[in-house]
Amino acid sequence: MINVGLVGGTGYTGVELLRILVQHPEVNLKVVTSRGEEGKPVADMYPNLRPYTDICFSVPQLETLSECDLVFFATPHGVAMEMTPDLVANGVRIIDLGADFRIYDTDEYSKWYGIEHTCKDIMAETIYGLPEVNREQIKDARVVGNPGCYPTAVQLGYLPLIKSGVVDTQNLIADCKSGVSGAGRQAKVGTLLCEASESFSAYGASGHRHLPEIKQGLAFANQNKDVGLTFVPHLTPMIRGIHATLYAKLTDTNVDLQKLYEEFYQDEHFVDVMPFGSHPATRNVKGSNFNQISLHRPQDGDTIVVLSVIDNLVKGAAGQAVQNMNIMFGFPEHTGMTQPAMLP
């Protein structure tokens, strides 16, 4: 059993992480921090956790967090950078669910997030936490940058095509939709019920922070050659879930696409390749760590359409973080995440 700390336990990602951790048989939840809720029982804020924990929020302190084997950061960008160097020096392993350790090019990070990256030495040893790509490196990592939600759905959808070299990598289109929880728990006019309900809109069409992260992963799959990607996210009037509709032009129209995907993901517990022509829905993966993928080839032409769905709070955040923790400490990857998705 390992001692685990969580910095930033009041957001949607934080409570989703807590929901998984309090049921994890190998985890002792030692500390959950929040400066604004110091001393308040976690279960007072999240009554769904009442039967599972009596821990109280506390102010993040290096001494207390250093008693943990692993610390999760479920915080806005810029926060994890402040404490990670000292925690790593004290032998604590880190999984950051924010953006601080996702983009290897720190200048690119600064460009998109508007702050200087202060942990360039730590960044040099950080592993990007997409298990389906970096599983072996994650095992020994001291710092893992947990992928974003859109980047997870898009990369898992495109990877088999790009790695096999059967599509034009300069003309990729990712048309993605997310539930409102992806915007976080902080009150914002755009995510109020009267603003988001019964409406559908794109945002960040001219450039979104997740674009460099997605392109970084796809370039790695493309033998470190840049890809051409148009990425447009949309806000949908639902609480959770991501649906990524991905387009590419085939350069080899004779490839058995279904076989390609099934063989690529045959050993991946959390990737479910559905029958050809299926239509996965976000409700299929609600509350689970699964990614469902299906393939379409309209009119048997040279366009491949990949449908990739995840729960943005689980495989897109907290569940993937726990999957990474399991890999880092030698637990079976599905430990703590054996429940099927919630229906309806």
Automatic annotation (TrEMBL):
The reaction(s) this protein catalyses: N-acetyl-L-glutamate 5-semialdehyde + phosphate + NADP(+) = N-acetyl-L-glutamyl 5-phosphate + NADPH + H(+)
Pfam families found in the cross-reference section: Semialdhyde_dh, Semialdhyde_dhC_1
NCBIfam families associated with the record: argC
Species name: Bermanella marisrubri
EC number assigned by the record: 1.2.1.38
CC terms in the record's Gene Ontology section: cytoplasm
EC main group: oxidoreductase
Keyword Cytoplasm: yes
Catalytic residues (positions): C149
PANTHER family noted in UniProt: N-ACETYL-GAMMA-GLUTAMYL-PHOSPHATE REDUCTASE, CHLOROPLASTIC-RELATED (PTHR32338:SF10), N-ACETYL-GAMMA-GLUTAMYL-PHOSPHATE REDUCTASE, CHLOROPLASTIC-RELATED-RELATED (PTHR32338)
Record function comment: Catalyzes the NADPH-dependent reduction of N-acetyl-5-glutamyl phosphate to yield N-acetyl-L-glutamate 5-semialdehyde.
Primary localisation category: cytoplasm
SUPFAM superfamilies given in the database record: Glyceraldehyde-3-phosphate dehydrogenase-like, C-terminal domain, NAD(P)-binding Rossmann-fold domains
Subcellular location: Cytoplasm
Domain Semialdehyde dehydrogenase NAD-binding: 3-141
Gene Ontology biological process terms from the UniProt entry: L-arginine biosynthetic process
InterPro entries recorded: AGPR, AGPR_dimerisation_dom, AGPR_type-1, NAD(P)-bd_dom_sf, Semialdehyde_DH_NAD-bd
Pathway: Amino-acid biosynthesis; L-arginine biosynthesis; N(2)-acetyl-L-ornithine from L-glutamate: step 3/4
Family: Belongs to the NAGSA dehydrogenase family. Type 1 subfamily.
GO molecular function: N-acetyl-gamma-glutamyl-phosphate reductase activity; NAD binding; NADP+ binding
Stated name of the protein: N-acetyl-gamma-glutamyl-phosphate reductase
Keywords assigned: Amino-acid biosynthesis, Arginine biosynthesis, Cytoplasm, NADP, Oxidoreductase
